[in-house]
Amino acid sequence: MNLPDVEVTPEYGDNLLNAEIMLPRGGVMTKGRVSARKRDSAGILTGLADPNPILDTRSYIVDFADGDQAELSANLIAESLYSQCDPDGNQHFLLEGIIDHRRLDNAIKLSDQKSVRPDGRTYLRRSTAGWQLCCQWKDGFTSWETLTDLKQSHPVETAEYAKIVGIDHEAAFNWWVPGVLSKRDRIISLVKQRSTRYLKRTHKFGIDLPKTAKEALALDAANGNTLWAAAIAKEMANILAPDETVPVGYQKIPCHMVFDVKMEDFTRKARLVAGGHKTDAPSTITYASVVSRETVRIALLMAALNDLEVKVGDVLNAYVTAPVTEKVWTVLGPEFGPDAGKSAIIVRALYGLKSSGAAFRAHLASFMRQMGYTSCKADPDLWYKAETRPDDNFRYYSYILCYVDDILCIHHDAMSVLDRLNKYLPLKPASVGDPKIYLGAKLSKTRLANNVLAWSISPSKYVDQAVKNCEKHLSGKLTGNYSLPLQAKNPFPLDCSPELDTSDPLDPEASSFYQHLIGVMRWMVELGRVDIATEVSLLSSHLALPREGHLRLALHIMGYLKRHHNTRLVFDPTYPTIDLSLFPTFDWTGFYGDVSEVLPPDMPEPLGKDVDVRMMCDSDHAGEQRSRRSRTGFLIFCNMALIDWVSKRQPTIETSVFGAEFVAMKHGIEKLRGLRYKLRMMGVPLSGPSYIFGDNKSQVTNSTKPESTLKRKCSSICYHFIRESVAMGESAITHIRSEQNSADLMTKITYGEKRRRLVGGILYDIYDNHTP
């Protein structure tokens, strides 16, 4: 099979041809197929093109099965395609009944069902291939579906049909129909708990989805275009080396094509995937890290502080740009045209191989080094390089942050850096430019009330979509009386204690949904939703055995997020006002000797403007009523930008508020020590010690005055750890009033005006566009 000569990236617009859509005609939904572009009386194509299909006004002809035609614009066709599919492009139909069947040539005959193994034992071959059933759907149309799919989605209906029409003895039915019919009632009960819908796997956004390269090319031939062939040709370039003699020691693996349709513009996509599960584990490292969210926040702060540009780019084809590190070969399939059937050594890091992630990261790292960048030892996926801004001779560090194939560059001329990287590693042209979405959240530059420009991150779109998905799941898949509250002013209702909940445990399906919700909300917290950190932490303690009450609390949080989805975490570079008179210094030599903060011996020279590091620290003594464990909470700021936050149950049971506060501050100082190390390894100058604010006066006094003695030995480790940090000049601690301590949000469930004040002091736009 020869691949035709095709353009790698066909013009958008042809992507809509031959798409199946459902349209109302005569009071019923009727299936039509987009057949051609519309032309006016002069033969000129009508409408104007736009990369966004919703804004595309070109017109098309839609053919119906009865021979009728309709004229529709591209935006109406795209709207129809989106409306009949879920967010992943899949269609779900409700089955009315099975009305016909047909047997294809590749179906197993009854006489051929019995086979003999090499050891002489006989067995029955079990396969549903080669049979199709005609389904009548509740929407009013019919379609032929494979027995394989219907056996999985509607086993009882399919078995009953086979029994009624007398084909249950056939080789594709006799090994499973009797068992299904004997267990009919139990299967019906389980199916009703899951769903009664059929997932149409042969289409995506109404477009035929091939399973093999042969089917893809056959679709192109039937449709009169080369869209799938172009997708295959784009993927095949420089992946394998055919006509090679396979060396000794290479492992044979299967490869197959996976096909998809992109949501944005219905572009066809083909991906060659290796069966890496059939290979031995490689001796080389297979782990590939990504840049941490904390590092991203620091980098965005430094961009605003040093007045630098921020640009992004996405590596084209990612993994397959890297050379493979495993010794593997395969037999070429029909997607390789005239080379089909030949042996070939895999030379690129295909998706599916165990080492592909690590191979791509090493490949990317080699280009970073060629460009003069150095990997940060505190975060290997941040690369830095000393630069001088030409207009004012300002010296600073340029940063490149790598999250797999997503590149974020910070530089006074960031586009020049991405252009240079593009010569080594091609970037998707449409992805290069100003940042819009990064790690699932919206990035934007904001001018604050003090006229300072700062970068902000908003997970609003992610939160809004998560809420919609939750409501959709509740309406269609989850059994039980569950719904989002209409008036959720706070994440938790009043007087709520998840640890004391004694409601019934959730069934497996609801339990899985609960765990999914907690995972989604954890990522929201990572993206900046600090206002739900404590509540999500409390519910995370019940992932092993969630109860109905826990699920209702999780849904209450989703109701709160629906009401308050619009938030921004702003990385304000403004220097805070710190009253140094609140941090007196003392001579600690007689207690801890001549100690000083340990500086990394290999840290780069500090460049750029310095930063102030602050922490608000608090604990909730014996807050958990079941075990009486306390909760640690703190917020860490660089200048006015929130960089890190923690809400976590303490590992020990403390018998006093004093002890719980010491444990919380020790944990916070450990985090600060790691942050100070990271800042120094990024070349960021520090203005002085970390300024720590706590609201327990006894604990602050014991930490800051050398003559204070500890009379509770159980707190001695935390006591000396904190005091030594103060003695070496790493930390400076002072007391603030409880109502001024924003870390209260990370330790207690708050309500009303107090909550609005605490949250409004951290997040922008959450309460009627209020800003801190």
Automatic annotation (TrEMBL):
InterPro entries: DNA/RNA_pol_sf, RVT_2
Residue stretches making up the Reverse transcriptase Ty1/copia-type domain: 246-446
Any Pfam family hit: RVT_2
Protein name: Reverse transcriptase Ty1/copia-type domain-containing protein
